[in-house]
């Protein structure tokens, strides 16, 4: 995790870090497709998220704003050490973070020793205001969107993009040539760009390759689009992301994680729950 952030220039968005880790570890689509029983999230990506969270809690990464991570002085120090010493530092950091979370779990009412395999359950239950916000809602949202019919997902996608000001006409159906919507994306009060939209209701654990992006580019270009937007619940491979910007029209790729962020930004189909940040009040404890 720390090496990948360093390779990205010392800072990166969470989604960029995951993509770089997948490429660095040469993860296969089959490995990414392994999920928890009853949960649509990839086990491997979940482990990556926890690694990033632990690095932040242990002080090796800083997060100046939501979703953005920066290599801290401690993180830089760990990377400067010889391999054996660096790993020892990381293991020590990991033990410290886990011990603190167990302590907080006990304070929250978890009794008895932590049994093997139970720690992850505790981590999922204990609210930690210092950790990254709970993203379990994203799993629920992606699962709900995946239960839509293909036509329903296309309609939802067009609705979401319209809330951002795009003026789109529904094209879907037989003979749509891979395009579900076409119209204008405003650039300024006097300028707009012709845009084509395609919605792919693939499973959240799927990985979309280069061929899908390249085919959509061809269809969008044939329709006279200057830009294109490909929306999916799945992920895009590194090759697909490269293909999106090599030729015109360039394609803006919206994967499942980014789709969730856009839905949250527009507050569509979500309910906000007010919670008490207990740690904030510690400054007044005597």
Keywords:
12 helices; globular; single chain
Describe this structure in words.
Helix 10 runs parallel beside helix 11 (238-246). The longest helix has 25 residues, at 83-107. A 5-stranded mixed sheet has the order 4-5-6-8-10. Strands 1-3-2 form a 3-stranded antiparallel sheet. Strands 7-9 form a two-stranded parallel ribbon. It is built from 12 helices and 10 strands. A hairpin with a 2-residue loop joins strand 2 (61-65) and strand 3. It has helices at 2-7, 14-24, 29-32, 43-57, 73-80, 83-107, 119-125, 136-146, 150-163, 210-222, 238-246, 256-266, and strands spanning 11-13, 61-65, 68-71, 167-170, 181-186, 192-200, 207-208, 227-232, 235-236, 250-254. The protein is globular and about 60 Å long. Residues 112-133 have low confidence and may be disordered.
Please write out the topology.
Layout: H1 2-7, E1 11-13, H2 14-24, H3 29-32, H4 43-57, E2 61-65, E3 68-71, H5 73-80, H6 83-107, H7 119-125, H8 136-146, H9 150-163, E4 167-170, E5 181-186, E6 192-200, E7 207-208, H10 210-222, E8 227-232, E9 235-236, H11 238-246, E10 250-254, H12 256-266
Parallel strand pairs: 6-8, 7-9, 8-10
Antiparallel strand pairs: 1-3, 2-3, 4-5, 5-6
Helix pairs in contact: 6-7, 10-11
